[in-house]
Amino acid sequence: MTARLLIVGPQGSGKGTQGVRVGEALGIPVVSTGDVFRANVKDGTELGLQVTSIIDAGDLVPDELTSAVVRDRLGQADAAEGFLLDGYPRNLAQVLHLDEFLEGREESLDAVIALVVPREESLSRLTARAAEQGRADDTEEAIATRLGIYERETAPILDVYGTRGIVDEIDGVGSLDEVTARIFAALEARGITATPAS
Ligand code: ADP
């Protein structure tokens, strides 16, 4: 079904995993800026070379560059009928870029899923992930940088979307299935369902 969604949450909130589940259930592509950047780094593209050191330090890639990457991705055919954004927008400048882009297509976001996870829980999950996956930006220093950016720059975007009445705050503590069920309950209340309404 048509749904234009954004999932927001601190590092270690499970937003990547939940985003994929929601995207699959609704049949819409998941656009994760982190994944796009990591794929480019891995493939050694020009974009990848530009962003490697920024990502490893846990800093934000410049807004203009990130927004151009997202516009390009959302311009592809599979995103015409809906998409789930994960990791973008991440600050107020990016919210403006996205607004402008969507307005040009006479579209708007239908819902913003905000995963709420206490800092200590985020930190312990990230430490576990660092041990398992060894992501280059899961060092203690880069994690602290990313969490700080989340609190200062990303959390405020929820106020903007909140005034538009599209934010659903979801308790992100619990099993993966419990959290997924909470997300779908909130989406259903907005008329966004995984199966066509009869
Ligand atoms: P996390 O949420 O754990 O930080 P992501 O996979 O979402 O992981 O992002 C990894 C990195 O990619 C970020 O730390 C940042 O360097 C870059 N990045 C992702 N999304 C954005 C964005 N919207 N703006 C700027 N940089 C971004």
From TrEMBL:
<protein>
    <recommendedName>
        <fullName>Adenylate kinase</fullName>
        <ecNumber>2.7.4.3</ecNumber>
    </recommendedName>
</protein>
<comment type="function">
    <text>Catalyzes the reversible transfer of the terminal phosphate group between ATP and AMP. Plays an important role in cellular energy homeostasis and in adenine nucleotide metabolism.</text>
</comment>
<dbReference type="InterPro" id="IPR000850">
    <property type="entry name" value="Adenylat/UMP-CMP_kin"/>
</dbReference>
<keyword id="KW-0067">ATP-binding</keyword>
<dbReference type="Pfam" id="PF00406">
    <property type="entry name" value="ADK"/>
</dbReference>
<comment type="subunit">
    <text>Monomer.</text>
</comment>
<dbReference type="GO" id="GO:0044209">
    <property type="term" value="P:AMP salvage"/>
</dbReference>
<dbReference type="GO" id="GO:0004017">
    <property type="term" value="F:AMP kinase activity"/>
</dbReference>
<feature type="binding site">
    <location>
        <position position="174"/>
    </location>
    <ligand>
        <name>ATP</name>
    </ligand>
</feature>
<feature type="binding site">
    <location>
        <begin position="59"/>
        <end position="61"/>
    </location>
    <ligand>
        <name>AMP</name>
    </ligand>
</feature>
<dbReference type="GO" id="GO:0005524">
    <property type="term" value="F:ATP binding"/>
</dbReference>
<feature type="binding site">
    <location>
        <position position="94"/>
    </location>
    <ligand>
        <name>AMP</name>
    </ligand>
</feature>
<keyword id="KW-0547">Nucleotide-binding</keyword>
<keyword id="KW-0418">Kinase</keyword>
<dbReference type="InterPro" id="IPR027417">
    <property type="entry name" value="P-loop_NTPase"/>
</dbReference>
<feature type="binding site">
    <location>
        <begin position="87"/>
        <end position="90"/>
    </location>
    <ligand>
        <name>AMP</name>
    </ligand>
</feature>
<feature type="binding site">
    <location>
        <begin position="12"/>
        <end position="17"/>
    </location>
    <ligand>
        <name>ATP</name>
    </ligand>
</feature>
<keyword id="KW-0808">Transferase</keyword>
<feature type="binding site">
    <location>
        <position position="129"/>
    </location>
    <ligand>
        <name>ATP</name>
    </ligand>
</feature>
<feature type="binding site">
    <location>
        <position position="38"/>
    </location>
    <ligand>
        <name>AMP</name>
    </ligand>
</feature>
<dbReference type="InterPro" id="IPR033690">
    <property type="entry name" value="Adenylat_kinase_CS"/>
</dbReference>
<feature type="region of interest" description="NMP">
    <location>
        <begin position="32"/>
        <end position="61"/>
    </location>
</feature>
<dbReference type="GO" id="GO:0005737">
    <property type="term" value="C:cytoplasm"/>
</dbReference>
<comment type="pathway">
    <text>Purine metabolism; AMP biosynthesis via salvage pathway; AMP from ADP: step 1/1.</text>
</comment>
<feature type="binding site">
    <location>
        <position position="33"/>
    </location>
    <ligand>
        <name>AMP</name>
    </ligand>
</feature>
<feature type="binding site">
    <location>
        <position position="135"/>
    </location>
    <ligand>
        <name>AMP</name>
    </ligand>
</feature>
<keyword id="KW-0963">Cytoplasm</keyword>
<feature type="binding site">
    <location>
        <position position="146"/>
    </location>
    <ligand>
        <name>AMP</name>
    </ligand>
</feature>
<comment type="similarity">
    <text>Belongs to the adenylate kinase family.</text>
</comment>
<keyword id="KW-0545">Nucleotide biosynthesis</keyword>
